[in-house]
Amino acid sequence: MPRRAIRKKTGKRKEHRREERVGASLPVDLGSAQGMTRDVSASGAFFETDASYTIGSEVLFAIDLDTPWGPAHFDCRGTIVRLERRNGTVGVAVQFTDSDTHAIPSPAPRRRR
Predict the structure, then answer these.
(1) Which residues contact 36 (CB under 8 A, 6 or more apart)?
(2) Which domain holds residue 33?
(3) Can you give the CATH number for the domain in which 29 is found?
(4) In this structure, is residue 92 part of a structural domain?
(5) What is the pLDDT of residues 52-91, one digit of tens each?
(6) What is the tally of structural domains in the chain?
(7) Which pTM value belongs to this model?
(8) Does residue 4 lie within any of the structural domains?
(9) Measured between alpha carbons, how far is 81 from 18 in angstroms, rounded to an integer?
(10) What integer pLDDT is reported at residue 71 of this predicted model?
(11) How far apart are the first and last CA of the chain?
């Protein structure tokens, strides 16, 4: 009788990401809720929130980011690909389907009297 190969479970999931992730704690505006990113990449983001979501649903959110050339605002649209529930919050993994970036205007300089 042929022997079957036995694979050990390592507890690690198969890597599906196409882009390198960068750890970042950035506020996320979800409209009616708020969150905080744990990491972001060119193709997606992972954030934690207390809002309720389902895998496969679309999510719209905004992230403000300080860059070397000044503050930038990212309006993002994505599909939820994974949820991690823990301690009353949910971790949401989103694959971007669309995003729009624009600079945040600086406040006008004040005139001296």
Answers:
(1) 25, 26, 27, 28, 47, 48, 49
(2) 22-103
(3) 2.40.10.220
(4) yes
(5) 999 999 999 999 888 888 888 899 999 999 999 988 899 9
(6) 1
(7) 0.71
(8) no
(9) 14
(10) 86
(11) 95
Q: Which two tokens stand for residue 105?
A: 């205007």
- DSSP label at residue 56: T
Cα–Cα distance for residue pair 24/45, rounded to 1 Å = 10
Rounded to 5°, angle at Cα 96 from 93 and 99: 135
Q: For residue 78, give the nearest of 63, 64, 95, 91 by alpha carbon.
A: 95
CB distance 72 to 62 below 8 Å: no
Strand stretches in 30-88, DSSP E:
34-40, 44-49, 58-67, 70-86
Q: Residue 49: which pLDDT band, with cuts at 50, 70 and 90?
A: very high
Q: Is residue 84 part of a domain?
A: yes
Amino acid at 40: V
Q: How far apart are CA 46 and CA 62, in angstroms?
A: 13
Q: Which residue has the tokens 């390592």?
A: 10
Task: Say if 3 falls within a structural domain.
Answer: no
